[in-house]
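Please predict the structure of the following assembly.
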Amino acid sequence: MRLVAKKRLPGFQLDVDVEVGSRVLVVGPNGSGKSTLLKCIAGLWRCGGSRGGGWLYVPPEPQAPKRMKVGDYIKLLQDLLRVEVKTELMGVDYLDKKTGELSSGMAKRVMLVAAFSTDTPLALDEPTAYLDAKWRTRLVELLKTRREAVVATHDVEVVNALVGWDVVELEEGRTAKVVHAHR
Amino acid sequence: MLIARLFRRDFGGVATALGAMMLPVAAALASLGEGMGPAVMAVSLLSAAASLLGILTAMENVMDDREGWMAPYVTALGRWKYAALRAAVSTAVSVAAVLPASAFYGLIRPASALPVSAATALSAAAGAAVGLLLGFSASTRGYAYAWGIAAWTALALVYEVVLTFILLYFPVSELFAATALLANPLTAARLTGVALADPHLLTLGAVGDYLHRSLGVYAAYLFPAAAALWIAAAVAASLLEASRRDL
């Protein structure tokens, strides 16, 4: 597939056009444009190069609405994404709790189980952020089963674990290096 | 089902608080008695509160979406459908939140129930349309609230004071005054109730007399038609804004 995104922001310009496989790791220092690239391909941000869309973006920080019970939020996501959310994927067994009462890691797992229950290609931005060691390991297992995903990360463990994924390194909004995995 | 779930999620916060605040106002207005004067006063005050509720509720809903996990909406529905869904749910929440106050007023003063409920429902919907547009246009929640309060103050309070001043001190035509009344979504929504309570538009003075002379009984239809047009225009502008901005 081709990752194309052009976006001008104050003091920063993203200009990426690269041919990669369907499973990609995006790495690079802070401010190199990883999140911007993911938001562009997910169609959340209006960017040049391609229209974007069709990818489900999962942000680094948990963003569940504050006043809902986890179970109700999951039902809303099920209706929206038209999938059966598999809560057991990441041990989301706290359906009666309000989302505002959750720790950041627990709230992040709610988003991740919804995302991993779909067949939609995933654009995961720092997916291990807020997760403890147990759930980081589980996340890597789930990532290995995905057919289409773009993961932006600083986590060296994730990069080392996802053997067979292409790696795109960004620097100041441009592609610094592309490593194609052996296919 | 999705609409019902979103409605449940959004029916709370500002909508419930302001809806509850309207109940004692409705009780106080109902205590003024029966007749055209008290009914017009009830229409005016409850419409003002309903429009504020609509603006703040819709804005809060949009900002909750924008500051929350927006991606599932955009991925599953696309921007246009998401914005249309948001408009439908926020309008429904706003109208539902003002229902208890207008129903309470109607229970005590059944003769004025229709003007009051029509005006409050339409004002809530008009406010929600303005709130949607501001919610999608503002860069942050703080700016959205600032713009919302400013818009309500301008449209619901300052507009008519300025218009009255102009009518008193400048030789403007009745057509200009009538057009000015229709040019404000919140005024048009409020006057829908006024026209139902006062079919001859006596409370509007010379402008009401002009409208009644020109259009007869059809003059009363001008206000809901203008309010509906404004609501449609504001919702269309919100959809356009949602389709083009970074979410």
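The CA atoms of residues 23 and 146 of chain A lie 8 Å apart. Chain A has five helices and eight strands.
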